Amino acid sequence: MNTRSRFPNLPVRCVLAILAVTLIAGCGVSKSKHTAMTRERDDAIAKSAQLQTNLDQANKDKAQLEADKAAMDAKVKEMEATAAAAQAALDETKKQYDGMVSQMQSELSSGKIEIQQMRDGINVSLAQDILFKSGSADLDKGGKEILLKVAENLKTSPYQVIVNGHTDNQKIGGALAKKYPSNWELGGARAAVIVRLFEDAGVGKDRLSAVSYSDSRPREGNESPEGREKNRRIEIRLRPVTKDQTAGAN
Fold first, then answer.
1. CB 204 within 8 Å of CB 219
2. Which end of the chain has fewer beta carbons closer than 10 Å to its terminal beta carbon, N or C?
């Protein structure tokens, strides 16, 4: 059938439209049914596109969840390592504490020495009168023997050793004031003498420090002789060496 010859005066697009209608009619498909089929096809294409979009988003969400899980797993491992290191430090502190207590039973029984296990290490408090004479920074023979016992324990320990000199609030007078103008100098001189003894005994110099607190941190009131006696003391603090300190030593 030559549609163009049958409609010689019609535009081409009109001829094509007539041809399309003729073909549909010839195939037994009505125009309304063709329109419905076209709509269904378009709906199916739209649904397919939406499903693809949903799938792409699901894949992105999955990738993010996997990344979040990997980060969480890494955090858990880090926390476990930190907890293990903290437990190892506590175990080492307990071992050090038990060793010092066992080594210094006789001195502890006198009440002149106290050893405390702290959250961040160990504190050894020694009364001044078992180490120094009043107003002096020269170690007594008995005090030196006690400190050498402590030094033996410190040589193999992993701790930073901080020697703190504490005094009462009584002013230094007379000829002694020329050597120690105040309790700051006296407390510092006593701490320095002990640090030097530890170094000579083999404790690593990079782990030692001497500090004077003068009368700024009393344990008791200074109104009574008993209170002043308790305030005159040496405290040796043992603290774990930090990573920064280790790096600095290198």
1. no
2. C
Q: What is the pLDDT of residue 122?
A: 93
Give me the mean pLDDT over the 83-109 stretch: 85
**pTM of the complete model:** 0.67
Domain boundaries 93-249, corresponding CATH code:
3.30.1330.60
- Nearest to 183, CA basis, from 217, 209, 142, 208: 217
Q: Which of 57 and 11 is assigned the larger pLDDT? A: 57
What mean pLDDT do residues 64-70 have? 92
Ranges of each domain in the chain: 93-249
Taking each helix axis from N to C end, the angle separating 141-155 and 183-200, rounded to the nearest 10 degrees, works out to 60
**Which of 199, 219, 215, 217 shows the shortest CA–CA distance to 207?**
199
Model pLDDT, residue 108: 87
